[in-house]
Amino acid sequence: MTDDAVHRTAAHVAHDGGAGAEPGGADELDAAPHTAPHAAPHAAPLDVAVDRQIEAILMIADEPQSLVSLAAAVGAPVPVVRQAVERLVADFDGLVGTVRRGFELREVGGGWRFYVRADLDAVVEQFVEAERPARLSQAALETLAVVAYKQPITRSQIASIRAVNVDGVVRTLVARGLIEESFTDAETGAINYVTSDLLLQQLGINSLDELPLISPLLEDGAGGFEQNEGIPDGRT
Predict the structure, then answer these.
(1) Bridge partners of residue 116, in order along the sequence
(2) Using one digit for the tens of pLDDT, what is the confidence trace for 86-105?
(3) d(CA 36, CA 168)
């Protein structure tokens, strides 16, 4: 082959990007299809585990949970927990390709807690009205008495007095409109409950001052509700 033929062959190979072309060269890169921008990355497997753990804790928690308490519960740093909560909020709100749930994860009183979405309050109220019993149970009556004489009071304080778990009973009383949330403790995040105006109407009294003294009903007239200083009959 002459020198001219060699030069013409080399030029033809270089122009056509033949087998001798270097892989990944400019011609090959130009010919590669352009890909769409990557979607937002999903949580890594470890993060998913943290998300599910926090979700489970919040599902059964009766009080708002702070990031610090959640971090202690799952054994993760607070920044990791904060990111997990943000992912859960976006997930439940349907912002990451998911279905918008009938509940939301809301920050209140320095902590996080599940709440029914406002636009579904009517259907939930209708369900509660249909499901709740006509009469209060003995446990509900006892819990209601504790709240009436010791308010404002938290669930843990009620449970301490009654020596039983009162979560379900408190939810029932709130659903019946006999007690209501008054305020959230800034330090502990615990919700304080008080009796409602509906209770006064049901009892046929104008104020809590008309409640009967509790002292005569106690065995020794000195225990139980009389632990409050300056309130000899335990009434607030």
Answers:
(1) 103
(2) 999 999 999 999 999 999 99
(3) 51
Structure tokens at 73: 């519960």
Domains along the sequence of the chain with CATH: 50-125 (1.10.10.10), 138-210 (1.10.10.10)
| Closest to 172 (Cα-Cα) out of 202, 143, 211 | 143
DSSP structural state of residue 65: B
Our CA angle for 44, 47, 52, nearest 5°, is 125
Q: Is the pLDDT of residue 138 over 60?
A: yes
Tens digit of pLDDT for each residue in 45-84?
667 899 999 999 999 888 889 999 999 999 999 999 999 9
3-state SS track over 156-212: HHHHHHHCCCCHHHHHHHHHCCCEEEEEECCCCCCEEEEECHHHHHHHCCCCHHHCC
Nearest alpha carbon to residue 139 among 166, 171, 175, 179: 166
Contact criterion met (CB below 8 Å) for 166 and 150: no
